[in-house]
Amino acid sequence: MTARFSGKTVLVTGGGTGIGRGIALAFAREGANVVVSGRRAEPLKETVALIEAAGGSGGAAAVTADVTDSQDVARLVGETVARFGSLDVAVNNAGVFVPSAPVADIPEADFRRALDANVTGAFLSLKHEIAHMRAHGGGAIVNVSSNLGAHKRDAGLGAYVASKAALTALTRNAALDHIADGVRVNAVSPGKTDAPMSTLPGESPEQKTERMRREIPAGRAAAAQEIAAAVLYLASEDAASTVGADLVVDGGDTA
Questions:
Q1: Are 109 and 44 spatial neighbours (Cβ–Cβ below 8 Å)?
Q2: Exposure b/e, 106-115, CB count within 10 A at least 16 = b
Q3: Which of 1, 45, 153, 178 counts the highest number of beta carbons within 10 A?
Q4: CA-to-CA distance for 104 and 119, rounded, in angstroms?
Q5: Residue 1 lies in a domain
Q6: CA distance to 51, 111, 157, per residue, from 104 (Å)
Q7: What is the SS3 string spanning the chain?
């Protein structure tokens, strides 16, 4: 355990489950004050309880918010700063995975939902996070994208792929726009991960393990902690010259 983020305040959207929860716990272990956000209160409270049980040196708080609502995101940033006095790192992890369908058969509502959550939600988060950071000495932002999108396509996943490819492009443009403001923006693009989003409907843990063994060159899904380690690196001073990167963590799936 290190204390790379001691005294820093970190906001993690989509922090109630899976990768987001793993990221929040990892920052807390390294001394950060952590605010987790999402639309449902109960999973967020569970994440806060896990952080407190782990005994990190920082504080933890849960704030419900919808990242597709600009006023809600502005409130989220404001409550984070009011609670802990700063916003030093933001991890934009909130997103959705819509049902699989060929492009011609994707319901328009599903396509819009993917773009709204995965692109517009990230844009609004960046907008309000950067506005605060550039007025208060800078900061670091990591967007959680996907190896599906800019790096790989998969049949039936056109809506998700389009949204994540757009997020990768948005990340790089934000990085160019705001590095002079002292705000570093990067992305992590996970592949299949041991998290609810990568589990097929009705799939047992044993079936998922066997599927991952067949589908991924490394023979297994990544652990949430491994995705978190990549996020923490990009958010840390160790990556001070890393700007606009898209770090793929997928066990060789797109190698």
A1: no
A2: beeebbebbb
A3: 178
A4: 21
A5: no
A6: 44, 11, 11
A7: CCCCCCCCEEEEECCCCHHHHHHHHHHHHCCCEEEEEECCHHHHHHHHHHHHHHCCCCCEEEEECCCCCHHHHHHHHHHHHHHHCCCCEEEECCCCCCCCECHHHCCHHHHHHHHHHHHHHHHHHHHHHHHHHHHCCCEEEEEECCCECCCECCCCEHHHHHHHHHHHHHHHHHHHHHHHHCEEEEEEEECCECCHHHCCCCCCHHHHHHHHHHHCCCCCCECHHHHHHHHHHHHCHHHCCCCCCEEEECCCCCC
Token pair 């160790």 in the structure block, residue? 238
CATH number at residue 105: 3.40.50.720
In a domain, 194, yes or no: yes
> pLDDT digit string (tens) for 205-252?
899 889 999 999 999 999 999 999 999 999 999 999 999 999 999 999
Residues belonging to the active site: 160
User: Tokens 């041991």 appear where?
Assistant: 194
Which pLDDT band, with edges at 50, 70 and 90, does 1 fall under? low
Determine, yes or no, domain membership for 71.
Answer: yes
Instruction: Give me the domain span that covers residue 99.
Output: 9-249
The number of domains in the chain is 1
Residue type, 232: L
